């Protein structure tokens, strides 16, 4: 979770995934800009990152 906190401090947008070690509720508390719940969603995130 330290990487999400550090990125936020530096103004870097973050993407977290709910199929890893932490569940979605914990990731949401860490203020990730995006949380993916399925690996298939990765491709649809790219255009969003370009606009962010």
Describe the 3D structure.
This protein is mainly alpha-helical. It has one domain (2-51). It has helices at 2-10, 24-29, 42-51, and strands at residues 15-17, 34-36. 6% of the residues are buried. The model has no long low-confidence stretch (mean pLDDT 84).
* Averaged pLDDT: 84
Beta-strand portion reads: 5-15%
Shape field: flat
Number of domains: 1
Structural class: mainly alpha
Written as H for each helix and E for each strand, in order along the chain, the element string is HEHEH
Cα distance spanning the termini = 22 Å
Taking the sheet with the most strands, its summary is: 2 strands, parallel
Q: Can you list the strand order of the major beta sheet? A: 1-2
Radius of gyration: 11 Å
Low-confidence stretches: none
Supply the number of helical segments.
Answer: 3
Fold blueprint:
Blueprint: H1 2-10, E1 15-17, H2 24-29, E2 34-36, H3 42-51
Looking at this protein, list some descriptive labels:
52 residues, mainly alpha, single chain
Summary, kept brief:
This protein is mainly α. The protein has helices spanning 2-10, 24-29, 42-51; strands at 15-17, 34-36. The protein has one domain.
